[in-house]
Amino acid sequence: MESGGGGGGGGLSSADQQLIRESWQKVSASPLEQGLVLFGRLFDLDPGLLPLFQYNCKRFSTPQECLSSPEFLEHIRKVMLVIDAAVTHLEDLHCLEEYLTNLGKKHQAVGVKVESFSTVGDSLLYMLEKCHGPAFNLNVREAWTKLYSTVVKTMSGGWEVSKSVE
Ligand code: HEM
């Protein structure tokens, strides 16, 4: 029994939820491929994020090197799984709250600034648009923007908590 018309989906109407589920189907058929589009775009928009990905203390010298490393491909899989979990729980996103807050904390610990998550959001929309073409219309874009900002808002709780505790 959630209050409001959004059904507890972070302000998502049932029409929004439907649009998100439909559009995610095509993406989730090839998550790695789509994730590569997302992160390729992210490094184009902000190459400064590249040094944050280090595995066994090894830095990548180019985005291409990063995008082809097995460890980074695992990160892409993880990201796509988190989005998939959000799409699965559109009606009860609050059940992911604790997980997402912790995920925010982990990202703060590896040096990610909360602001960088808006560049991730732009890259997510870019990937969705590439995948769907003109079918990715304003309504679908707005539905995804709402979902993504709910996820980021929850993750950013991890940053704020760690700052205020210390
Ligand atoms: C600015 C963008 C991002 C950067 C620089 C970043 C960086 C990292 C790094 C360095 C790690 C640890 C190494 C690894 O597991 O590969 C990590 C872990 C992870 N990231 Fe990200 N990440 C970003 C965005 C995201 C987003 C948008 C999501 C999902 C919504 C996400 C989900 C995860 C998950 C699930 C883990 C594993 C956490 C664990 O070990 O429990 N990341 N990230």
pLDDT < 50 stretches: 1-8
Would you tell me the structural class of the helices and strands? mainly alpha
User: What is the helix content?
Assistant: 55-70%
Q: What fraction of residues sit in β-strands?
A: under 5%
Q: What is the CATH architecture assignment?
A: Orthogonal Bundle
Shape: globular
What is the domain tally? 1
The bound ligands are:
protoporphyrin IX containing FE
Number of strands: 2
Please tell me the overall pLDDT. Answer: 91
Per DSSP, the total helix count is 7
Alpha-carbon distance between the two ends: 37 Å
Characterize the main sheet: 2 strands, antiparallel
Structure description:
- The chain is mostly helical and 166 residues long.
- It has one domain: Globins (Globin-like).
- 67% of the residues lie in helices and 2% in strands.
- The protein has helices at residues 14-28, 31-45, 63-67, 70-88, 97-109, 116-132, 138-165, and strands at 54-55, 58-59.
- Strands 1-2 form a two-stranded antiparallel ribbon.
- Helix 2 crosses helix 4 (70-88), helix 2 (31-45) crosses helix 6 (116-132) and helix 6 packs antiparallel against helix 7 (138-165).
- The longest helix has 28 residues, at 138-165.
- It is globular, with a radius of gyration of 16 Å.
- The termini are far apart.
- The model is unreliable at 1-8 (pLDDT under 50).
Nutshell version of this structure?
With 166 residues, this protein is mostly helical. The protein is 67% helix and 2% strand. α2 (31-45) packs across α4 (70-88) and α6 packs antiparallel against α7 (138-165).
Top keywords for this entry?
about 170 residues; 7 helices; globular; Globin-like; mainly alpha; two-stranded antiparallel ribbon; binds protoporphyrin IX containing FE; about 65% helix
